[in-house]
Amino acid sequence: METIIAILVYFGLMSFGETTLTPPVYQYQIQNNQQLIKYYQTEMDELQAVRALIDRQELN
């Protein structure tokens, strides 16, 4: 839930006053999300291969 609130604050849809986030917590959440996005971008081929394997196993 904190991650969603941090994203809303980041895009200006909410302010700190409307949330229970402090600026350090907000900054941590945004950095954590950026790291996750970078991981998905760099590992996309491997993630797609794993997804294809799961799909094949579900069909059997």
Your description of this structure?
- This protein is mostly helical.
- It contains 3 helices and no strands.
- The longest helix is centred in the middle third of the chain and has 20 residues, at about 25-40.
- The radius of gyration is 17 Å and the shape is elongated.
- The relative contact order is 0.12.
- The mean pLDDT is about 80.
Assembly state: single chain
Which H/E pattern describes the elements?
HHH
Major sheet details: none
Unreliable spans: none
Calculate the mean pLDDT score and round it.
79
- What structural class should be given to the helix and strand makeup? mainly alpha
Distance between the termini: 36 Å
What is Rg?
Answer: 17 Å
Shape: elongated
Q: Please estimate the helix content.
A: over 70%
Total beta strand runs? 0
Number of helices: 3
- Beta-strand percentage range: under 5%
Task: Please provide a brief summary of the model.
With 60 residues, the chain is mostly helical. The protein contains 3 helices and no strands.
Features:
60 residues; mainly alpha
Summarize the topology.
Layout: H1 2-10, H2 23-42, H3 44-59
